[in-house]
Amino acid sequence: MIIRVLYYTNTAADRNWSIGPLYDYEEILPGRTIRWLGPSAHVNRGIVELLKQESSELFVLSDYSAPTTQIAMRILNRSKKRWVFWGEVPGFSQRGRLGSALRRQLQRPIGKGAAAVAAIGSEAVDVYQKLFPGMRVFNIPYFCDLTPFRTAAMARWTQSKHTVDVLFSGQLIERKGVDLLIGAFAQIADQVPELRLRVLGTGPALGALVGMISPRLRDRIHFIGHQQPDALRKIFAAADIFVLPSRHDGWGVVVNEALGASLPLIVSDRVGARDLVEDGCNGFITAAGDIDDLAHALLKLGRSEDLRESFGRASAERAARWDMDEGVRRWVELSNEILDA
Question: With CB atoms 3.0 to 4.6 Å apart as the test, which of 107, 110, 173, 327 could cross-link to 143 if both were Cys?
Fold first, then answer.
């Protein structure tokens, strides 16, 4: 099997990651982003000729809102080539009547010609099955190499500490719900004096979030800024609880990383990666936007070392089923089914 990966761009407007060297099978297409249309409005020169000449047996496309994807879907449909759309659950954010109509138009090429949809998470599976009745829909969320997180987390079982550290990782934007987490933390802080909150990431909401913190909690809530991927394993391993309280989130790979680090997890019911969380087994799933519900879950884990250890062990066991090998297995299964049809 030969794989070729083509990227629309070498960076993302809302990310600060450093770009490492590409593998031989990877290529960044020449093109540009039309900023006034949005951060995903990628237009790549030569996509028409490239796809006409490409002899691959199966194509995988993502981000149907990108102009390049819209062009690619139509070319593949006309040429009767087999292709799959890979995407998160659509419509988490409120777009209004006009936005919903536009989204349906952008999705039309999928229904007209895609051989299948690779949905990122179980909720996305449900949504795409309703959008495209009769189409094959596979559950293929994001997978990543959890080995560095598992290795770093091993030290946690042998170390003693006097604080209970809660970790958030993500962009500091309204959608991620960090304000909800700070509010929930403030509710229970007096009941669990050893609790600390570490906020990993940066974004436009940083100033407002810092301004939320009362003077009595300023030495217990720490913003540690953006960190490069190589530093994440130690940061996750030093935590005791991981929280992603997003108002909506198509998936959230940080939950994969927290699972790999054997952490108890708290996520909202609007986080796609809640597939990784079994409520009451390795974490809690709370109602999105509900500070009281989030505070209650945080209090239960903050107070009980036994519960944290139990949930952490359950996350470690679950992580073994969510490593790269499982992702490869799912993609191979999809490819075989489509190509054998």
Answer: 327
Alpha-carbon gap, residue 59 to 75, rounded angstroms: 12
The total of structural domains in the chain comes to 2
Does one domain contain both 50 and 155? no
pTM score of the predicted model:
0.93
Phi, psi at residue 248, to the nearest 5°?
A: -165, 140
Residue-wise pLDDT tens for the chain (341 aa)? Answer: 789 999 998 876 656 666 778 999 999 999 988 877 777 788 998 999 999 899 999 999 999 989 999 999 999 999 999 999 999 987 645 556 777 788 889 999 999 999 999 999 999 999 999 999 999 999 999 999 999 999 999 877 667 789 999 999 999 999 999 999 999 999 999 999 999 999 999 999 999 999 999 999 999 999 999 998 889 999 999 999 999 999 999 999 999 999 999 999 999 999 999 999 999 999 999 999 999 999 999 999 999 999 999 999 999 999 999 999 999 999 999 999 999 97
Residue 65 vs residues 38, 39, 111, 154: alpha-carbon distances, Å: 9, 10, 15, 42
The CATH number of whichever domain residue 218 belongs to comes to 3.40.50.2000
Residues 136 and 37 occupy one common structural domain? yes
**How many of the other CB atoms lie within 10 Å of CB of 119?**
24
191 and 157 both lie in a single domain: yes
> Are 222 and 255 members of one domain?
yes
Domain hosting residue 47, numbered range: 5-143+324-340
